[in-house]
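Appendix B. One record, verbatim.
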Amino acid sequence: RRIMARRPTEENWESQILDVSFSIVKKCTDWLQLKGRLKEEGIFRVSGSVKRIKALTEQMQDEATGGNPVNLDESDVHTVGGVLKKTVIAIEPPLVPDHAFEAMQLAQFGEGDLAPRLQSYRKALSSVPAARLEILKHIVGFLRGVVREHSSNRMDAQNVSRVWSASLLRGSDDMQSTLLLASGRLASILLTLIVSDVLLGTTFDPVTFRGLSDKELPSVLTQEQDKFDKAGSFTQQKEWVHVGGGAAQAGA
């Protein structure tokens, strides 16, 4: 169900949605990161029970607004993962505002070299309200952790980007979002957020899990995007080009 606020003003309405959503997001991600649960094969790709996800979502919404505590140990990885995705996609308006969403599309698919295009990403993300940006950072950081376990869970950077892009990068125009999802473009944008430093401030090699130098980043991004092409799920895209200047700050 959509998370709806009961307060009268639009500002309070949105604030309540984000507070409740982030509370649920943090509880789900904290639980999933414990006891090797991220190693579960097909995490986020295998669907949990719709009935269980709906019931647990409602229980956690109630808890987040002062209700009874919820013990996630009574659930399973795929149900909790389903609640996490359902909570993010239920945020209204969508988590990333349209102006930032459109700017990231232009940065990803427009002309130009890597460094200025990544700078356009940073500018777009800097316009996202702090509460929304905090949720986005938290989830993308968590998704790096999912990728780190890909030898067990079979969720490499491409798979994670495919299954999460529609939840995190959803415009207010549902038809446009559907077309972008079908073309693979949403997944391509999320992959850039995971690998580059534009959101989290550090780079991330989705194979070795280390930080990347300015010189390495363009080739890694190109290699990862090429995997979409080989899988037939993404239309032809120009290579990332690195010409002079610092493209990104390497990190852990």
